[in-house]
Amino acid sequence: MNNEELQPLKKQPRAGKNSRSGTQDDVVYAHIFDVILEQRLAPGTKLSEEALGEIFGVSRTIIRRALSRLAHEGVVLLRPNRGAVVASPSVEEARQIFYARRMVERAITELAVEHATAEQLAELRQMVRDEQDSFSRGDRGAGIRLSGEFHLKLAEAAKNAPLISFQRSLVSQTSLIIAQYESGGRSHCSYDEHNELLDAIEARDAEKAVHLMMHHMDHIDSKLNLDEESASDDLHAVFSHLLQTKKKPGRAAANR
Predict the structure, then answer these.
(1) Are 236 and 56 in contact (CB under 8 A)?
(2) Which of 26, 78, 139, 173 is most buried (most C-beta within 10 Å)?
């Protein structure tokens, strides 16, 4: 694959007010974050400001602000005079990220046992059901994203703001590592492990909950193969679902 080239895209309407809220750079940031979480955007992909501006229908200034936020979280690399690329962690960086993730997950789990409310646990269980439904219908990307969002929601239940910030960066960086290095048939049984974890948290059993979380991290780690790559470096293809959504109103109007 050639991560340094990207063909210009045709002009597209303004992106996604129906599916995302906030400022324009919030919208762009959220969509790029999601495709990284879904492991659909390959590590090393060049993030052309021109191409992204045309995809989302916004200025380069908006794109730069979104990319800057992603760079702060460690999932985008800003290269002086060469533009931005999706981060491509080395083997050693991957090991360090996974080590940090394990430490943060341990702390989050202990705090979630202490602080998680019944409402938060119910929301987490619904996320697990949605995750399972996504994999069952073959929507792997949505299932992976929901799996990552489960860990972000769990961090909220821990009620520790710095840990939430750390976890957001670590979850997205972990998704990049998995996209770059995961091997085998890519089987995903995280929803079973997530349900068992929630049972332990609901029972306020910190020791069991931490054990289950570490087992869950072991399971993810065991599937890494440092010799393989996947995902895509074609921005147009990765964001095609947005472009198709935006084209539909135009077709309808033309038929009126």
Answers:
(1) no
(2) 173
**Residue 132 contacts by C-beta under 8 Å, 6 or more apart in sequence?**
143, 191
The DSSP letter of residue 41 is: B
> Could you read off the pLDDT of 163-188 as tens digits, one per residue?
999 999 999 999 888 888 877 555 55
Write the CATH number for 146. Answer: 1.20.120.530
Q: pTM of the full predicted structure?
A: 0.74
> How many helical (H) and strand (E) elements, i.e. helices and strands, does the chain have?
11, 3
Beta bridge partners of 79: 83
The domain of 196 spans 91-222
Q: Is 88 exposed, middle or buried (0-12, 13-18, 19+ CB in 10 A)?
A: middle
What stretches of the chain adopt beta strand conformation (E)? Answer: 46-47, 76-79, 83-86
The three-state secondary structure class of 232 is: strand
The single-letter DSSP state of residue 224 is: B
Residue 229: inside a domain: no
Sheet of 83-86, strand order: 46-47, 83-86, 76-79
Residue-level pLDDT at 246? 61
Summarised one tens digit per residue, pLDDT across range 198-240 is 999 999 999 999 999 999 999 988 888 755 444 555 667 667 7
How far apart (Å, rounded) are the C-alpha atoms in residues 187 and 94?
A: 21
The sign of the torsion formed by the CA atoms of 65, 71, 72, 73 equals positive
Assigned domain for 119 exists? yes
Single-letter code of the amino acid located at 142: A
